[in-house]
Structure formats: C-alpha cells, structure tokens
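Record pair follows.
FIRST:
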Amino acid sequence: MSVEGALARVIRSAADRAATADAESCELCAARVADEHPHLYDTGAAEVRCVCGPCSVLFADGAAGEGRYRLVPRRRLRLPPVDTGVLGVPVGLVFFVPRSDGAVTAQGPSPAGAMRWEVDADAWRRLAAEVPQVASMTPDVEALLVNTVRGLTEHWIVPVDDCFRMTALVRREWQGLSGGGQVWAAVEQFFRDLTERS
C-alpha cells in the first residue's frame, strides 16, 4: 500500500466521521434522520426533540409518552388578520402557545432567545370564541404565530418547531441594539417560505 493510498483513506475516514457528527439523529433510537423529520415536544423540559419516522409512530394520537412527549403536528394554516391586541402583548413578532393546563404563553424572539409572558386565559378564550381556527389548536404543540412588524399582517397556526426555528433565526441574524436590517429581511423570508399544509 502506498503512502498516498493510506493518507487518502485517513482523509476520507475523517471526512466521513465529520459528516456523521453533523448529521441529525433520532433522540430516541439514534438512527439518522432526514432533513425533514418529525419532532416530539418534551413537556417536562419544554424542548423539541428530533425523531425518526418509525419512532414518531409510537407517539401518534397520544399512544405513548404518558403525556410527557407529544408528537408535533405538521399543520400550517394561514389565517386572516387576527386582533391579538386583546391579549396584551406589546410586540409585533410573537407566538402564542395554549397549554394543556389551560394557561397560554406568548413568546417573542430576541437576540437572547425567546422572551416569555403569561397571557390572560380569559382573553385567550374570548379570542378563540371569535376565531374557530384558534379554538382548534392542539395544546403545547401548535402556536398562533404573528408578525405585524414593519407593516406586515402575518397570522398563522403552525407547529411549535416552526416557532423555535424562527427564534433561532432571529438570534443568529440580530445585530446591534435594533437588530439591523438583515434580521428583518430574514424574518420576512421566513414568512414567505411558510406554506400551508394539513
């Protein structure tokens, strides 16, 4: 075996290990997952976990997990403008998540992660009575995502993993005190890329 052949094998092996390390894997069985893959919401840690297709089937319709792990649905639904001002949240880029215990949280992305507020449950119930799609949201795993920054009127029901993805985008792109122009262009692109699905 030549030195060049052995060196090539070492380089290929290191590249393969790096690619494997960068690839996402199922947090239940460690199998590799595709770029588009299901997620579980861990209610105890308030985090999203990556799972493979076969493992996600275990959690369909609340079949496993004893309430701790909830399968994040895929539904995205664009809504006509919703008057979220009644919820008392003073920011234009925010997502609202109803909880299994009846509480509702509002979270707004920031350079430090998501800022969080408790929303008045009665105000949320009044809004849900006016907007049937909001009433149909699955607690803990679906969110009402709103963007009224810079004159936009985006209102969506989305899986919570979309909201976490948007929060990560804001954190990554934020510059200076006001965020800079780059962050708002990235947020607008995020909303342009949303597509309805059931």
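SECOND:
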Amino acid sequence: MSSTSGPLGWAMILATFLVAGFVKGTIGLGLPTVAVGLLAIVMSPAQAASLLIVPSFVTNVWQLLAGPRFGGLLRRLWPMMAAVAVGTVASAGLIAGAQGPGPASALGLALVAYAVVGLAGLSVRVPGGAEPWLSPLVGLVTGVVTGATGVFVIPAVPYLQALGLDRDQLIQALGLSFTVSTVALAAGLAREGALPLAAGAASLVTLGPALLGMAVGQWLRGRVSAPTFRRAFLIGLLLLGAHLALRPWL
C-alpha cells in the first residue's frame, strides 16, 4: 500500500470506511462492496480486501447477533455457508495472485451485476423443494466471486432475498453470510501470503471510522426513505462498477 501510505492516502482510506459503514448502517449491507469498490481505484483489490477484514468481521458479527433467530437460520443455511467458505478459500488465489487490470475489471463487473439486479426490482421466490440443492450451489458461486473480487454479494444477496425471509431474518442472514465470507477471505488471503501482519494492523485502524459511519447510518435509517436511499446507493454502485470495468480501455 505504498501509494496510499501517506497522509492523503490514509485520509482517503478512513473516509472510505466512514462512507462504507454509513451505507451498511442505513441499509444493512454494503460495507465490503463500497470499501473494496472505492479503494480499488487507487490500489489492487487484494490490498483493499485485506483492509476490510477487521471492520467487515466486527460489523457483520454485530449485525448477526442483533437478531433473535440465529440458531434457526444457521440450521437452515449451513449448507450454503459451508459452500461459501470452501469456494472462497479455494479461489482466494485469484485475487491474491492476479496482476494488471484484470482483478479491478472483474470487481467492476460484479458491482455492475449486483446494481442491475437490485435496480431491476425483480421479485423472485425460491421453491422450497429447490433450496436443499440450490443453497450449496449459490454458496459455492458466491465463494468463487468473493475469492476473485473481494465482494460478497453476488449471488448471495439476491438469493437470500428470494427465500421469503422477513426483514429481521434477512438482516441476520446477511450478517451470517458476510461473516462467513469475511473469515473465509481472511483465511484464503493468509494462505496465499497476501495478509501480512501490517495489513492486519492497518485493517484494525479502519474499524473506528467504519463503526462511526454504521452508527450514524443506523440513526438515519428511521429518518429517511430506505427505498430512495437504496436506489441512490445502487445507482452509485453501478457507476463505480462501470468505471472499474471499463478503466483499462479508457
């Protein structure tokens, strides 16, 4: 992170996690997506992913334990979570070892896909009979995408939204999925030698602004229109993803 180790670089990093925490506090997700997406403009996705480990883990455990149905969700979703872990650890070499613009472009495409799905507003439900075999498949694909880009949301978030969970269950299920993804990504990066001690210390520094942003976002959640904010977030994500995907050709 030599290019971002100066005062201006650290100011950008801390501001990024403040914004990412704010988004997560407001709509219940988006910290890794926003953080990795913005930081990938000035550093590799692997470096950005190493910075998000601590704030992502802490904020997602916070979100996971805030709901009342952890045991039931874990029993229902463990096949998906196991597949997320396996896929992420197995594919972490993609983000750790890739050179050139490829990782940032892949990250951009993932952000665009997530934004398009969200903006389309499609209402899909997973048939009960399909869940036993579809959950591990979705988990495995999510793990591969996470290992390649550092982003946890595709296709896990649309899939969890399609399970018909109520709002509290969905928020808690997202916390569970993101926690597993964070731990698995940290394990995968460490296995690839892409998570040195200095990166862990730097990630710890970003926890403060992330928690502050999350607290402000939670305070604001009941004072603004959540659908309006989410739409603005998705449009911003679409533009950011398009920029990252197209940057090598601009």
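COMMENT: Residues 7-249 form one domain.
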